[in-house]
Amino acid sequence: MTDRTAPGRPDVAVVGAGAVGATIAYTALVRGSARRVVLHDIDSAKLEAEVLDISHGLSFTPMGSIEGSDDVEVCRDARVVVVTAGAKQKPGQSRMELAESTVALTRSIMPRLLEVAPDATYLMVTNPVDVVTTAALRLTGLPPQQLFGSGTVLDSSRLRHALASRIGVAVQNVHAYIVGEHGDTEFPLWSSASVGGVPIRDWSRMHGGALDEQALADIADEVVHAAYRIIAGKGATNYAVALACCQIVESVLRDERRVLPVSTLLEGEHGVEGVCLSVPTVVGAGGALERLSVPMSDAELEQLRLSAASIRATVEQVGV
User: Fold this and answer.
1) Where are the domains of the chain?
2) pLDDT in tens, 186-210
3) Is 293 known to sit in a ligand binding site?
4) Is 20 within any annotated ligand binding site?
5) Catalytic annotation on 182?
């Protein structure tokens, strides 16, 4: 499974060759996010099959290579390590119900990864991602700039898609964020959302009634429950989350300094401390660089604190 033509350190090491991990590896090569990708999993047969399948399409992608191994040594000196290993979410199961087994796996795998890639930027993707990220920071002692979670980057993309579809504009012109937990207590920041510079709450008054309060509530509910709908239909989410993760990876590798709602350790911002959750954050070569002081209404601040309380309760429950 080793590509002898690709010397040097990996740009990206993906840990876990399940639906999400394998799709991230594939997407990184198709997009040209990384030139050298490695994939690590303990299931060597599944791993070999995924690596072969991706390898057979490399003549159709930007120049790149993929290597796989059940030995964590394959991740040595990686610039970015994307951790997707964890229990699979079952239909109807909340992300928080996954916490105990996934944190146990994180406790096992992180020391080994740090031995081979101590200077990597770590992107945690495994759900419940906010709990896993909080646990990984406490277990490793890494700075929060170096280790953070994929957070609500995907959820924010879902929100923008729903808004764009509702009012008939390009999704790239919708600026809106989902914040808080990547899960049931997440919520949209309507107070700062806009379309082409027009505040969301002014859209109905200025451009028709397509986005009244009921429509906004319906869209928020659609976004919060999107993953459950997809998992019920096909067993996993993988395409959009892979694209979201690759945008984060690109921002790190290319120092793009994109503003992305990744899950980082809050240290008093918005009255929240000691847990990881998502707020708009500048992401670049140094990792999660700066959390933006996004204006929030009193109701949104309360929602953020309730979201933090939910995450904290689960972290305490799993005993990290």
Assistant:
1) 12-149, 153-317
2) 999 999 999 999 999 898 778 876 7
3) no
4) yes
5) yes
